[in-house]
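Continuing the batch. This is chain 6 of the set; chains 1 through 5 are on the previous pages. Same settings as before, nothing changed between runs. Recording input and output for traceability.
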Amino acid sequence: MKNLLRRLGQLLFLGVLAGLIWLVFTHKTVPGKSGAAAGGKAAQGAKGAKAFGGPPPNVLVSKLSAVDVPVYVDAVGTVNALNSVAVSPQIAGTLTSLDFKEGQDVAKGALLATLDPATYQAALEQAEAKLAQDQALLANGERDLKRYEGLVAAKAVTSQQADTQRATVAQQAAQVKSDQAAIDSAKTTLSYTKITAPLAGRTGIRTLSVGAQIYAGGTATSIVTVTQMKPIGVVFNVPQQELGAINQAMAKGAVTVEIDQPQTGKKLEQGVLKVINNTVDSSTGTVQMKAEVPNATLALWPGAFVNVRLLETTLKGVIGVPPQAMQRGPDGDFVYLLKGDKVNVRKVVAGVETNDLIVVTSGLAAGDVVVTSGFTQLADGSKVNVGTSPASKPPS
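Output for chain 6:
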């Protein structure tokens, strides 16, 4: 029974298959009028394509010209203040006032804070009183010396007595000088009660409050940090292989450094390379450098990461091709050069490559036209239909 059912299933499958084949066959061999016309056209197109190899491919081209190409060294840098000082009291005392606002721009010498001056004012007055006392003694000693010198001339006293008085006057004069030094020291110490900005810059967040006690003999806590914002520095590392070219550029004049925003690539500032470090970091094979930037709009902030583009040199009057025009094969680099309505393979020697073009040191000249798009059907000597694309230009 099972064999019979299997046999019937096979016969049914063969019948269905034969019907499908018949339908396909009759559809192809009995076309309608419009189908016949379409079939005639397809046959004619196929015959034409076979005879002429199909229509020429569409390509875009670019005409080359001599351009100036800036060559940059790219790096990641860190914004670094040229000067930053944590302002701390130099003497002990009580903080009686804070004379700045956090985040304020201050000039050099501007008053930032004040300590209680009473103790130091008293010390100054004491030194001034001691000076007055010793000056009176000196004046009296000088008068006695004159009298002794007159008596020695009259032979009323011995010259030894005059010499003794002369020595006394010298001691008193030295004491007056010592008192004056003590006064100068007391004035200096008193001036430390007025805490001023050591440089022009911007204040940070204060760390002490009015009434804070500052003790002598310990490490004083800074009141605030003042950071120079204009100009500002940018520190970055470049590969040691670039050192020779950068040194040559510095020998010719100022080396321009462009500072860009990492996220968007937007140009923030432009400055000048100031320092090349005197050693190569052997662990990374890089050299640290510092640029100085005006930072007039405060676009740069200390500690921020930025992209750095150092202008190493500018290649004058070179031939550059769009990157999409450059082809690479087993025998080296080449381009498709347009001559009339045909293209020819032209071997080239590529040099410096930027985002916008590739400098060609050999194989092309100004005025040549190269293919920039539509390479899939190209071969040496191929005939093409030509469109245009923007001419090569130096990178911005």
